[in-house]
Amino acid sequence: MVAVSARQWRLNDYYAVLGVSPRASDEEIDVAFRALAKRWHPDRCAGDAQATERFKEITAAHDVVGDPRRRVAYDRERALAAASARPQGGPASPRQAPTPGSGGRPAPTTVNPRQAPADSHEWAGWTAPARARVRRPRRFHPLLVLSVGALLLVSGVLLAAWRLTVGRAGASFGAAAARTSGVILDVNGRRQVQFRAGDGRLVTARPAGAATDSTGSTVRVVYDRDQPSRVVLDHDSFAKEFTIWFAAVKLVVGGAALMVVSRSQRLRRWIVEHTRAHARAPVTRVGA
């Protein structure tokens, strides 16, 4: 760690040295430092005195703003320096501070790690362009994920309960429901169903709802043993049953998984890192 006095803090803009905003997060500062340190490392620029001085400057800047406690003290010293400089030369720039022996002129803009020259000999006289606005990293909201997971879990349980109770044909008949087969008839322009009840009686009744089956077709019937005239057509199929239960299981499992993720810091960290790595990955265009 390079020893730096509080007076030097007031004279140096370490945020500009690292090419980041004063509001940059700790992660953004670390990323900028690693990129600059790799570019200006003495092992890579052997024999270049300017590169060595640049590496020392980058290291000193990171030692200050890369440490949360020293960064707070540094920001306080910068604020005091800006306040003391206003009566003499007007408001000081938040990103540039006067250098010693420069007659009050602000320090030149430093390097952006992504736009600096690749060759260390091109550094002299080079001025970095204006920095683009740094995007804040996406954050993970455990409470929101927990709420969504609980909502999905409850929805799956309710769907399963509905299917087991009132979601089946003839569920309103309760224990008196009986199943058989019947034939669709056309009686005075109205479609009715004829079937034989459990006691042997031949019953012709109009089913609840609209009978869309063609005349003469055989259908499955659910009727009330106590009142055989109460009839519904059973159009449930294996595909319908499978779809409903698959949706219910998917909701329950997905909701439980989200609830587990919201309570596990390790899983949350892995998801955030995986999402960021995927967002930074280059997109390959087909046919390019």
Structural features, described:
This protein is an alpha+beta fold. The protein has three domains: 6-122, Orthogonal Bundle (Helix Hairpins), CATH 1.10.287; 142-164 and 239-280; 171-235, OB fold (Dihydrolipoamide Acetyltransferase, E2P), CATH 2.40.50. The chain is 45% helix and 11% strand. The protein contains eight helices and five strands. A five-stranded antiparallel β-sheet has the order 3-2-1-4-5, with no helix packed on it. The longest helix is centred in the last third of the chain and has 26 residues, at 238-263. It starts with 5 loop residues before the first helix and ends in an 8-residue tail after the last helix.
What is the fold's blueprint, element by element?
Layout: H1 6-11, H2 14-18, H3 26-40, H4 49-65, H5 68-89, H6 142-164, E1 177-187, E2 190-196, E3 202-205, E4 218-224, E5 231-233, H7 238-263, H8 265-280
Query: Helix- and strand-based class?
Result: alpha+beta
| Head-to-tail CA distance between termini | 48 Å
Count, helices: 8
- Enumerate the strands of the largest sheet in spatial order, edge to edge or round the barrel: 3-2-1-4-5
Envelope shape: rod-shaped
Question: Which segments are poorly predicted (pLDDT under 50) over 5 or more consecutive residues?
Answer: 118-126
What is the CATH topology assignment of the largest domain?
Answer: Helix Hairpins
Order of helices and strands: HHHHHHEEEEEHH
Tally of individual domains: 3
Strand content: 5-15%
Look at the structure and give the mean pLDDT: 76
- Estimated helix fraction: 40-55%
- Do you know the CATH architecture of the largest domain? Orthogonal Bundle
CATH top level label of the largest domain: Mainly Alpha
**What's the story with the biggest beta sheet?**
5 strands, antiparallel
Can you count the beta strands?
5
